[in-house]
C-alpha cells in the first residue's frame, strides 16, 4: 500500500490548461500535441485526482456552434460521471483572443468591456451546468505597458463595474457560486492591475457583495515579485477570504515558471501545506502548474503524480512536526515564556480604563530585549525533519 497514493478525499484538482499545456512558449512551437479533455479527465481520475477545471475555451473552443457546444458538453459530462471526477471551479479565457489585447474588463474600449462581460456570463452558465461552485477571476490581460492613456485608478473602477454586474447576474440566476480573484504582478502584461493578494483584498471590500467574493492566491504569483506566499495565504485565511488556492513552484525574480509543486522550494511548500491543513480550508488543492517543455505525455502524468505526492509527503511532515517531542517541547517552552506576562494588553479591547492601566504599566525593556528567541534551534529542527533524519 503506497501511503502517498492520492485519494478523492485529498481534493486534488488540475486545470485542462495545465496538463493540456503543449509546451509552446515565446521562443518555440509546441513540443506536445494537445490533449483531448475527455482523455485528461480519465487519466487524472486514474492518478487519484478529484477535480478538473477549465476556462470556457479549454472545453468549448472559441467560435464553436451551439450544436458543437452541446456535443462537447454531453461527452464531457459522460466522462465526469464515468470517472467520478467533479468540476469544483471554472473560469473565463479573457486573454487569448486578440480582442483582449489591451485588457477585458479594464479595456479602454467600451465594446471590449461589454464583450468580456457577455463572454463571462456565458462561461458562468457553462461552469454552473457542470457543477462549479467557485468562479475564478484571474486578470489575464488586465494591465498595461503604457500609462499615458488609461488612468490606472479608472481601470480599477471598470474592474469593479464588471464584477458587480456579474455578481448581480449570479444572484439573479440563483446560482450557488462564489467568486475568487486571482492576483498576479505581471505576465502577460508588463504590469497587471490587482498585482498582489493585498491589492485584491482591498478591492473586494469595495464590491457590492463582498461576502460573495474571496481570493485564489497562487504560489508563483506572489513569489515572482519576491513576496512570501505563506504570508499572503495567512492573510487571506485570516480575512476569511481563502476561497481557492493555486499551487505550483517558482523561483523569485524569474518569469512565470509554473513548476511542479514543491520542486524548487520544498521548505516554503511545507509551510504552505502546514498552514492549509491547520486552517480548516476545505476547498480544492489545485495545481496550476505545467510539465517542463522537454516532456512528452508520459512526462505530463509523471508531473501530475509528482504534485500530488509531494503535497501528501509534506502533509505527513506536518503531522510529524505536530508529533515530534523535541519540536513540541521547544514550542511549549517558547509559548510559556511568551505568555508569562499578566499585565494589561491591547487584547482586552479598548476602554479608557484599559488605556490608563497600560499607560501606567512599567516594563523592563532591557531585560525583555535580552531574551533570545531560539529560532535557530527551531529552524534547524524543521530542516532536519524535511531532510528526513528525524
Ligand atoms: C496564469 C494564471 C492562470 C489562471 C487561470 C485560471 O499565470 O496564467 O495562473 O493559470 O490561474 O487562468 O483563472
Ligand atoms: Mn499563474
Ligand atoms: Mn493560476
Could you give the topology of this structure?
Elements lengths: L11 E4 H4 L17 H11 L3 E5 H4 L6 H18 L5 E3 L18 H20 L4 E5 L4 E2 L7 H22 L4 E5 L8 E2 L4 H8 L8 E3 L3 H6 L4 H10 L7 E2 L18 H14 L5 E3 L9 H27 L1 H14 L13 H9 L4 H5 L5 H12 L4
Parallel strand pairs: 1-2, 1-10, 2-3, 3-4, 4-6, 6-8, 9-10
Antiparallel strand pairs: 5-7
Helix pairs in contact: 2-4, 5-6, 9-10, 10-11
What does this molecule look like?
With 390 residues, this protein is of the alpha/beta class. It folds into 2 domains: 8-316, TIM Barrel (Alpha-Beta Barrel), CATH 3.20.20; 324-386. The protein is built from 15 helices and 10 strands. The protein has helices at 16-19, 37-47, 56-59, 66-83, 110-129, 152-173, 197-204, 219-224, 229-238, 266-279, 297-323, 325-338, 352-360, 365-369, 375-386; strands spanning 12-15, 51-55, 89-91, 134-138, 143-144, 178-182, 191-192, 213-215, 246-247, 285-287. Strands 8-6-4-3-2-1-10-9 form an 8-stranded parallel sheet. α10 packs across α11. The relative contact order is 0.10. The model has no long low-confidence stretch (mean pLDDT 98).
Describe this protein with a few key phrases.
single chain; 390 residues; alpha/beta; TIM Barrel; 2 domains; eight-stranded parallel beta sheet; 9% strand; binds D-gluconic acid; binds manganese (II) ion; Xyl_isomerase-like_sf; Xyl_isomerase-like_TIM-brl; metal-binding
Model regions low in confidence, pLDDT < 50 over at least 5 residues:
none
What is the CATH domain class of the largest domain? Alpha Beta
**Mean pLDDT over the full residue set:** 98
CATH domain topology of the largest domain: TIM Barrel
User: How many DSSP E strands?
Assistant: 10
| Overall body shape | globular
Amino acid at each position: 500500500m503506497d501511503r502517498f497514493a492520492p485519494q478523492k478525499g485529498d481534493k486534488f484538482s488540475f486545470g485542462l490548461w495545465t496538463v493540456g499545456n503543449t509546451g509552446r512558449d515565446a521562443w518555440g512551437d509546441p513540443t506536445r500535441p494537445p490533449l483531448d479533455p475527455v482523455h485528461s479527465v480519465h487519466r487524472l481520475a486514474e492518478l487519484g485526482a478529484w477535480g478538473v477545471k477549465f476556462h470556457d475555451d479549454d472545453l468549448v473552443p472559441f467560435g464553436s456552434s451551439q450544436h458543437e457546444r452541446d456535443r462537447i458538453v454531453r461527452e464531457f459530462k459522460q466522462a465526469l460521471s464515468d470517472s467520478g471526477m467533479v468540476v469544483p471551479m471554472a473560469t473565463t479565457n479573457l486573454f487569448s483572443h486578440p480582442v483582449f489585447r489591451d485588457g477585458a474588463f479594464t479595456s479602454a474600449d467600451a465594446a471590449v468591456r461589454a464583450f468580456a462581460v457577455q463572454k463571462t456570463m456565458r462561461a458562468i452558465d457553462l461552469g454552473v451546468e457542470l457543477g462549479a461552485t467557485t468562479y475564478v477571476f484571474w486578470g489575464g490581460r488586465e494591465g498595461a505597458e503604457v500609462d499615458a492613456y488609461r488612468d490606472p485608478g479608472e481601470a480599477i473602477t471598470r474592474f469593479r463595474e464588471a464584477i458587480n454586474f456579474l455578481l448581480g447576474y449570479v444572484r439573479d440566476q440563483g446560482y450557488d457560486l462564489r467568486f475568487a480573484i486571482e492576483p498576479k504582478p505581471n505576465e502577460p502584461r508588463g504590469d497587471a492591475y490587482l498585482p498582489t493578494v493585498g491589492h485584491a483584498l482591498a478591492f473586494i471590500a469595495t464590491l457590492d457583495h463582498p461576502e460573495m467574493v474571496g481570493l485564489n492566491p497562487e504560489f508563483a504569483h506572489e513569489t515572482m515579485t519576491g513576496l512570501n506566499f505563506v504570508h499572503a495565504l495567512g492573510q487571506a485565511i485570516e480575512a476569511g477570504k481563502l476561497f481557492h488556492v493555486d499551487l505550483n513552484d517558482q523561483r523569485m525574480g524569474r518569469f512565470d515558471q509554473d513548476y511542479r509543486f514543491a520542486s524548487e522550494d520544498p521548505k516554503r511548500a511545507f509551510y504552505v501545506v502546514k498552514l492549509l491543513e491547520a486552517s480548516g480550508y476545505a476547498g480544492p488543492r489545485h495545481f496550476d502548474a505545467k510539465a517542463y517543455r522537454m516532456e512528452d505525455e508520459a512526462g505530463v502524468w509523471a508531473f501530475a503524480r509528482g504534485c500530488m505526492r509531494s503535497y501528501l509527503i509534506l502533509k505527513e511532515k506536518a503531522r510529524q512536526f505536530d508529533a515530534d517531542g523535541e519540536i513540541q517541547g521547544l514550542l511549549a517552552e517558547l509559548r510559556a515564556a511568551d505568555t508569562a506576562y499578566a499585565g494589561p494588553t491591547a487584547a482586552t479591547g479598548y476602554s479608557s480604563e484599559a488605556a490608563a492601566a497600560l499607560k501606567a504599566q512599567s516594563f523592563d525593556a532591557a531585560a525583555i530585549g535580552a531574551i533570545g528567541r531560539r529560532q535557530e534551534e527551531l529552524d534547524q529542527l524543521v530542516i532536519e525533519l524535511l531532510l528526513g533524519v528525524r
